[in-house]
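#dry-run=false #mode=assembly
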Amino acid sequence: MAGGKRNPAGLKTGVPRASRRPPAGRNGRTPRWFSAVHLLHRLRIVVSLAVLAGFLLVLFSGGAPSGGGTAAGGVATGGGEAVAEAVERAAEISADTAAQQPAEISALARLPRFLAGIQVLPAIVRLFSVLWLPALAAAVGVFALTFLFGRIYCSSLCPLGTIQDIAHRLSRRRGNGGCAPASHAASKRRRWLSGRRAVRFSVLGGAGAAAVFGFLLPLGIIEPFSVYGRLVSDILQPLWDRAVIFFASLLPSVYIAGEPAPWMVFPVILGGGMIGLILIMVLRAGRWYCNRVCPAGSLLSLPAGISFFRISIDTGLCTRCGRCEQICKAGCIDSQAMKVENSECVSCFACLSVCPVDAVSYSPANSKPSSEPEPEPESAPEGEPGRSRQAPQASQAPQAPQAPQGGGISRRRFLRKGTAGLFAAAGFLLLPARSARAGVFSFFGRIAGTKKVVMPPGAGEIDRFLSKCISCHMCVALCPEQVIVPNGLREGFVLLEKPLLDYRVSFCEFECTVCNQVCPTGALAPLTLAQKKVTKIGTTHFYEDLCVVHTQGTDCGACAEICPTTAVYMVPYRDGLTVPKVTEDVCIGCGACENVCPVEEPKAIRVEGLPEHGRASVRTSLPSDAAGADAGRSPELEDPSSPSGANGAPPAGGGSGSAGPYGEGGSPGTSGSAGTEDPFAF
Amino acid sequence: MSRFEPLFESFRNLESEPISRREFFRKGLSLSAAAAGAFMLSRARPVFAQNWRTPSGDYDLVALVNGTPGGMFDRGIAALGGMKRFVRRGDTVVIKPNMSWHAEPEQAANTNPELVARIVEHCLAAGAGKVYIFDHVLSRNSYTVSGIQQAAENAGAQAVPGGADRYYQSVKLPKAKLLIQTRVHELLLEADAFINVPVLKHHGSTNMTLAMKNLMGCVWDRGYYHRYGLDQCIADFITLKKPTLNVVDAYRVMINGGPSGRGHAKVLTKRMQIISPDIVAADAAAAAQGAQWGVYGAERVGYIGIADRMGLGRSDLENLNIKKIML
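#status=ok
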């Protein structure tokens, strides 16, 4: 490249390049701590830490019982009308259903859910073949932000970026300087620059193309939010829970609800391994991951390369001291050439506050009135706007105030690139039509479909699930029942790290849609509670020869007792015993029966997952063959006026009035019913 | 999976962070000191052989009808000589309502919240140092949906989660036939007085849920009961300790479709309450009452007969000194 030759040091003779210390009090701005650039840098740090803290609220909201008052009315009244409205196929819920979500997600989980919702790649994945306006707003918003201000997303909104920054900062405290020394890095970097664009875009292209055609696994492994999510839910959450439980156990009268999140071997290895690799690279080369591997970073490097506000170096002021280059986590500054590769800049603003002569600035690209557009356009090769721009300028008089500060690009270029980007984005979203996805990689779905795994409600069908779930494990972290567990490798490579339901651990609570509400990619469609209650995620099979009623000759009925839909009910068996029976189209596959079945594995009643979720019908009365269907069939009054007060205040003042509990006529089953004789049966 | 991990798991995790050697020793030492302290604290609890306080009085059983849940309890406990007979100053009182089910008070699957709150108030008025409520729930939100947590906390009790493995301690039941060993909630080990507040309702497996059945919510492994015989295990649990007081809530009665009452249960408002220090007597009376309402009779509630034969209480209602109060 031309860049290698274009930096004759001799041209800079006029500048006191050897002086590491700037002349004190230059421009009368000695106290740098109050300068705008410094505040910008600090503000960036505070915002990113606040965002990370917001994300980590997930840890507090995992097992805690959510607030009361969830709608349970449908159960009391027979449930029929509560679910009467037509339920779309679980996969195709449109945006307007979001309005009727029950307020059951705990308050602490709302902020993490919002922050997860504005992550750029999950938002884009969510838009695959579904128009979800919040996700569209998030994706467009992040792109617009990047066009305007550079990769703010990478510096402040991405939790993995902040984690890397913290590691970077801690390593600097220990005194190894963070990255490689500047002089060393500069020569190395020149070798990298072209190469890493190639790496970056081939990774993005490969993972992105696979994702577009329905094979989300590579993208899910390297996507930053999913890497972060797996770190939190597979490693931090179990650690945190145990720490909380331990310290609570030291205090009297302090009880913590729920079990600690389980340790899963493979998810810990994968989650820890990914974060470990990334952090090792942080120590060696700063935001290495963000500029080579991260598909979100690669995507955002396109608008960032032509962003409006950008970091640039004033060649007239720069002393080439190399501090900015040394502190730059992204390795995007070439201090000797006085250039910044803006597409790779993660907008951390560290260079601004470290520059001793204020040569580094963050300003609009075309802000300098003197920046003529004509030096550049004709000489601009494709790619590398930062470099080509510098070529004429570096050979000009270095002190020239009208030097474009590495920032100016012509309007024509901007429009050309911007339009291309828009078209690319539109094509990206239009391409993944449902049929295209299902066709190209559907054999993965077919393999996974044979495993009979239970996908969380809202997953729809297995092809859809595989093409939408990035394995960020938000649902794992927030499932109040902890029934959603990361699969690891147990069910094979095609289901690697996908969240699945494990009924040995727990079961899917009937009155809950937390996973549907927190999924950032829409892999779990945002079902309403009414929809979820009839979403059939599996089918229950009863194995009579394993049941304790058969093997032990005792009454059990644990499965029927806990079944939320009465799909499992008891029918007469020999010797006056009763035995379970399953009505398959009423069963939703929640696994409560399997979980409580007292038989050791294999359980006598088990749920088999459906590769395509269905819709269960709702039972309105006990089946006629149910044992005890006649129980309580006393000719008692119906008692339509059940007391109004929530705490059971009687309707008519203490019950002494006319409508005594036993007094209403027509109850021949009750002895001595007619009067106030003796309500007591003993 | 993690349900069965020991508490000590937490140490190992804390140590696994990268720390310097000196720090490691310092942290390790302080941690082990803390652990030893915690261990000793946990060991310092009263031995389980002691019984909860079970005073005898004028009446063996009080039955009330036609009042509010709280009002009936006021009258009933007065007839029994007041709460001071059961709860002394500074006592730790544990109240075990039935609040296992994701159901609102009107559904009668759980104990009436007003009744629980009133019992809490009586305990505190009698000088109780600390009043806890808990249940081994079957549904995560049932504490709140049942309204009991709110009501009891407003009255001054502390709601303790019952759905966590680590709070259950192993106990032996030498006098039991089937349930020779089980794990009970540690609150039961701490309690000076234990008040059992079941709701009377239909139950698909044991025919009726009553006071003894309600204590199934004190153990961790309910599956054991189902595996080896519900009625015998339910009766066996009483050999461990008998509750100080049993308050059977029959204000609203689910007469079929129990215990969950999902979908198609019939709930009648009966406005009744049965209070007795003798758990078997309370159950016998409640079962007789249930039979009258068309649920099931005492002869079909197996655990009452078993408990009677094991000499755990008296079910011969005709020989008991019963006070009936109509409000």
